[in-house]
Design brief:
By secondary structure, this protein is α+β, with helices and mostly antiparallel strands. Helices cover about 65% and strands about 10% of the residues. The chain has a domain at about 10-130. A hairpin with a 2-residue loop joins strand 1 and strand 2 (about 25-30).
Length: about 190
């Protein structure tokens, strides 16, 4: 009997990579200093390699953050890496989209760079998978909410009908069979 392949669970390294993926301009990106740290090279060396191969990185693969985007990100990044502290904050970092990170594998030739590129691409894939599952769950919850709303309306209708029956017939039935108590002038 064949069993379904086990889905790989996120490792500590995967989580470390995923925590370095940010949303900028409606894109999932990684910043140059984080990638350099993962590839175990200096940011300056990393960026020089990218600049030497700039034709491989069009705007949808890599872009430089604006000063405003960089300031917002710096204020949001709680655990600043050592790279961010050493970095000249007046020069904004490059942001690499998923495609840009994939292209880095062809630019950075070291064994470490190849392994990290694979790990980073897998992290992006895991994020997509998680987002897809979240969307499915969200749609299912919306369907359940709609069904509950319909059931609530139906139950309210039933309760109102029962109350109306009790108000009209129930009261008449109770008073018809009951002996009257108290003073009766015609007796």
């Amino acid at each position: 009997m064949a069993t379904a392949p086990k889905r790989k669970t996120a490792t500590n390294a995967d989580e470390q990579i995923i925590s370095r993926i940010y949303y900028v301009r409606d894109e999932k990106v990684m910043l140059d200093y984080d990638l350099a740290e993962l590839y175990e090279v200096e940011t300056k060396v990393f960026n020089q390699a990218v600049k030497r191969n700039s034709s491989r990185f069009p705007e949808d693969f890599m872009f430089r953050l604006t000063q405003k985007e960089w300031n917002m990100m710096r204020s949001q990044i709680v655990t600043a890496s050592s790279q961010i502290i050493k970095r000249n904050t007046s020069i904004t970092p490059f942001a690499f989209t998923e495609h840009g990170v994939t292209m880095l594998a062809s630019v950075l030739k070291s064994e470490r760079a190849i392994k990290m590129s694979i790990a980073v691409v897998r992290a992006f894939i895991e994020l997509k998978r998680s987002a897809s599952q979240f969307k499915e769950l969200s749609e299912q919850l919306e369907l359940i909410k709609q069904h509950l709303g319909e059931h609530d309306a139906q139950l309210n209708g039933i309760y109102e009908a029962i109350e109306n029956l009790l108000d009209d017939k129930g009261e008449k039935q109770l008073t018809k069979d009951r002996k009257r108590i108290g003073f009766r002038p015609d007796e």
